[in-house]
Design a protein that fits this description.
This protein is mostly helical. It is 85% helix and 0% strand. It contains 7 helices and no strands. It has helices at residues 3-9, 14-54, 58-67, 72-81, 88-106, 110-137, 147-212. The termini are far apart.
Length: 213
């Protein structure tokens, strides 16, 4: 049975399932591109920024961050470093508040993925139920074992196509959604680690400046 025949056999619910699958593929490609770009640049940039700041080269630190403002970690660091002589507590709060503001960027499309994962199997089941209703509606009680019984059997087989299609869409989307969720959790841990290092450097610098004053 060809793909077109399978699609036709699945019934009307195959259209929303097709839309879900195309949407999922488009969003997955966008998220893969996002995470590949982050993993390729962030480690190098952040280590360079921390090294410059440790050397008290604040100007070069800010310049390096502004050149990479497309990265979430750069925006988080800038939010704190651009404050005018903050206390260590204010510096920490600036890091934390900006990190919270970046969470929607890191979790982007997660709700859409969850919706597709939840609805695709239900749509597939609905297609199967509708297919079974149509199959049995065409069966005459007095014709059990007759020619129409074979048609009902074929109809049931075809009706199951929609359930299988819904499960395939859900499983495919679930695999990538869980992968992106793992990337997000690692990114949050990574932001906390390097944010803590920057906070420690600032605290030492602040205390040193206070003693000199």
């Amino acid at each position: 049975m060809g793909i077109l025949n399978l699609f036709t056999a699945g019934g009307v619910v195959m259209w929303p399932l097709l839309a879900f699958s195309l949407l999922a593929v488009a969003l997955i490609i966008e998220r893969i591109s996002f995470w590949v770009r982050l993993s390729g640049k962030q480690n190098r940039i952040v280590r360079e920024v921390l090294r410059l700041y440790q050397l008290d080269n604040v100007v070069s630190t800010l310049e390096a961050l502004r050149q990479n403002v497309d990265l979430p970690i750069a925006r988080i660091f800038l939010a704190a470093l651009e404050l005018e002589e903050p206390t260590p507590e204010e510096f920490r709060l600036a890091l934390e508040s900006e990190a919270q503001a970046e969470i929607p960027v890191l979790k982007r499309f997660q709700n859409i993925f969850d919706t597709i994962i939840g609805l695709a199997p239900l749509l597939g089941l609905l297609g199967t139920v509708l297919g079974l209703i149509n199959s049995f509606a065409s069966l005459n009680i007095g014709d059990v074992g007759g020619t129409k019984t074979a048609g009902v059997t074929a109809g049931i087989s075809e009706a199951l196509v929609s359930t299988a299609s819904g499960l395939v869409v859900a499983i495919f989307t679930l695999f990538f959604a869980n992968s992106f969720r793992g990337f997000y959790q690692r990114q949050i841990a990574w932001i906390q680690e390097y944010g803590g290092q920057l906070e420690l450097l600032y605290r030492r610098r602040y205390e040193k400046r206070g003693k000199q004053g």
